[in-house]
């Protein structure tokens, strides 16, 4: 079992599906990583022996050091710190984040129901919860 970006990578799953679970890796970056390693992204980790897995982990480690890619917790911290900075300087987007409204110009008359539900500002009704009799 490998650990990439704080997530466990299982041997029974192919490289694409296992890397896709890591926050911050999309299809294009997975393609780039697999090309950098020199492997097909649909091969299973089971087809490698212990030395092959060690070689893959070492090349992955070197790849992430060279490209300075942030994964998992660093990306989430960066995202929350950017939102906190917007709130602190009292920008328009920061105020929208504080109030729980869409920050990038979406409609609030009909489309903000989902975000209100997720933030707990609206009670669950028939549409999202159990049907009341």
From TrEMBL:
The keyword Transcription regulation does not apply. GO terms for cellular component: ribonucleoprotein complex; ribosome. The gene is rps13. One of its GO terms (molecular function) is structural constituent of ribosome. It comes from Pharyngomonas kirbyi. Belongs to the universal ribosomal protein uS13 family. It holds the Pfam family Ribosomal_S13. Transmembrane segments: none annotated. Keywords: Mitochondrion, Ribonucleoprotein, Ribosomal protein. InterPro entries: Rbsml_uS13_C, Ribosomal_uS13, Ribosomal_uS13-like_H2TH. The keyword Mitochondrion applies. This is Ribosomal protein S13. GO terms for biological process: translation. It comes from the Eukaryota.
